[in-house]
Design goal:
The structure is a homodimer. The first copy, chain A, is mainly beta. Chain A is built from no helices and eight strands.
Chain lengths: 108, 108
């Protein structure tokens, strides 16, 4: 699959997540967002570190402590385990294409 | 560092490799190539799996068994441990921007 190919996301109203590879237990995936966001008041509290990059479009990540990061094409962000965050916004046109690398659980 | 920002590679004649993140022992790096290739007859024989993606430009990977893969923007490739390979060519204009994820050694 080409990272910029939106065929699999065409006509979908939900985010499309596809596995790219697993390297030594670290899962690398592509996420295509088209305007979705994490519901207000909902926080991701992950038990593993995650690294994300935006390849196209824009995405906004907000942390529970108030910090906000707007990611544009080429921007990257480390999401340490248990740093609570949500995706406050994603672009729909163009679609927001993310790469995410998820480590295995830090605890357990 | 923005993945598409070539400031750090400007005026350099060698490849520029920069660490992006380490997730659970998996090192993610950006490589900017500008026409370099692995010397003929030289093969990478890595003791870890590697996953690569080309974000811009083109790169050609050749395996010792004769297989050849031309990667263009958005293309990805898994390089399993000990599958001997070399980079036969990279584009110079535009620069070839890679993301690579290296696992820890499979043996040892």
């Amino acid at each position: 699959m080409n990272l910029f190919d939106l065929t699999t996301a065409a006509g979908r109203s939900d985010e499309v997540v596809e596995d790219l590879a697993v390297i030594a237990g670290v899962r690398i995936e592509r996420i295509v967002s088209t305007g979705q966001s994490t519901p207000t008041g909902t926080w991701y509290d992950q038990d593993h570190d995650e690294w994300v990059a935006v390849l196209q479009g824009e995405g906004v990540v907000v942390f529970e402590d108030g910090a906000q990061v707007c990611l544009r094409a080429g921007d990257t962000l480390l999401l340490p385990a248990h740093r609570r965050h949500r995706v406050a916004a994603t672009s729909g046109e163009p679609a927001c294409i993310w790469i995410a690398a998820h480590g295995p659980a830090v605890h357990g």
